[in-house]
């Protein structure tokens, strides 16, 4: 059981380049999330998708776009990368419901020069 | 004002001791509380969740919730060096079934 799979695991970009981070889950979860994690700041929510066809902004959405391609896949796009977007990005998924925990992928380590 | 506060540590305990990790939160409407463990360079891994006042035990781990005082804690009994990690507290945002707010984490080191 793969759980939540993220690609790529590592990426180096130059300022101004664009890229898409991919995420897929095989747990049949309705909800999916994108977080970034910076030293000393914990996990911050970028965007989430409560169900297929819906997306909503989280705490730090500026500079990002998302697409919920289908129930399994939720991608995060950086249109014009900036050094401030250097971070570790985690995708997560969960069942619907207030008591449902989120399950995380292995992360993408992104450096923007 | 950060909504979920944790002592960043580092917290050091000797092997076999009880490690106590604390978390306070500001939103009185929060209903679900989660503890994640994160090893260096790895992703967060769910350890415990609790949503009723009182204690919940799972093996060497006990989560304690006090909604009146707005704190949740994690006790690790018989601490092992393999427990050395950062522990993240996460709290659901009232009114949102899906959004969680994470604390910055407490770094725990268990000394052999």
Tell me what you see in this structure.
The complex is a heterodimer of chains A (113) and B (112). With 113 residues, chain A is mainly beta. Helix content of chain A is 0%, strand content 51%. Chain A is built from no helices and eleven strands. In chain A, strands 2, 4, 5, 6, 9, 10 and 11 form a seven-stranded mixed beta sheet that branches. Chain A is globular and about 40 Å long. The mean pLDDT of chain A is 93. Chain B has strands spanning 4-6, 11-14, 19-25, 33-38, 45-50, 54-58, 61-66, 71-76, 85-92, 100-102, 106-111. Chain B is globular. The N and C termini of chain B lie far apart (37 Å). Chain A binds chain B through residues 31, 33, 40-45, 48, 50, 58, 90, 94, 96-99, 101-107, and chain B through 4, 8, 31-32, 34, 42-46, 49, 51, 88, 90, 92, 97-100, 102-105.
Q: Cα distance, first to last residue of chain A?
A: 36 Å
Number of helices of chain A: 0
Question: Which series of helices and strands of chain A comes N to C?
Answer: EEEEEEEEEEE
* Radius of gyration from the alpha-carbon trace of chain B, in angstroms: 13 Å
Subunit organisation of the chains: heterodimer
Q: Termini of chain B, distance in Å?
A: 37 Å
The fraction of residues in strands of chain A falls at: over 45%
What's the helical proportion of residues of chain B? Answer: under 10%
Shape of chain B: globular
Beta-strand segment tally of chain A: 11
**What's the alpha carbon Rg of chain A, rounded to whole Å?**
13 Å
Return the string of H and E elements of chain B.
EEEEEEEEEEE
Largest interface: A-B, 24 and 23 residues
Name the structural class of chain B: mainly beta
Q: Taking all residues together, what is the mean pLDDT of chain B?
A: 92
User: Kindly state the mean pLDDT of chain A as a whole number?
Assistant: 93
Biggest pleated sheet of chain B: 6 strands, mixed
Helical content of chain A stands at under 10%
Low-confidence stretches of chain B: none
What characterizes the major β-sheet of chain A? 7 strands, mixed
């Amino acid at each position: 059981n793969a759980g939540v799979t993220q690609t790529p695991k590592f990426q180096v970009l130059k300022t101004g380049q664009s890229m898409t981070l991919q995420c897929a889950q095989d747990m049949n979860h309705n909800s999916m999330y994108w977080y970034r994690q910076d030293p000393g700041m914990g996990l911050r929510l970028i965007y989430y998708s409560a169900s297929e066809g819906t997306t909503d902004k989280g705490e730090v959405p500026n500079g990002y776009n998302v697409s919920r391609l289908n129930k399994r896949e939720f991608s995060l796009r950086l249109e014009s990368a900036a050094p401030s977007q250097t971070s570790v990005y985690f995708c997560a998924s969960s069942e619907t419901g207030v008591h449902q925990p989120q399950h995380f992928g292995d992360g993408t380590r992104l450096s923007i020069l | 004002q950060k909504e979920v506060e944790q002592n960043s540590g580092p917290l050091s305990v000797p092997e076999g001791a009880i490690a106590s990790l604390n978390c306070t939160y500001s939103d009185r409407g929060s209903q679900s509380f989660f503890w994640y463990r994160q090893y260096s360079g790895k992703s967060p891994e769910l350890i415990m969740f609790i949503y009723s006042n009182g204690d919940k035990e799972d093996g060497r781990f006990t989560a304690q919730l006090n909604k009146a005082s707005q704190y949740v804690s994690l006790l690790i009994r018989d601490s092992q060096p393999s427990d050395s990690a950062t522990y993240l507290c996460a709290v659901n945002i009232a009114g949102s079934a899906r959004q969680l707010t994470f604390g910055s984490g407490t770094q725990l080191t268990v000394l052999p």
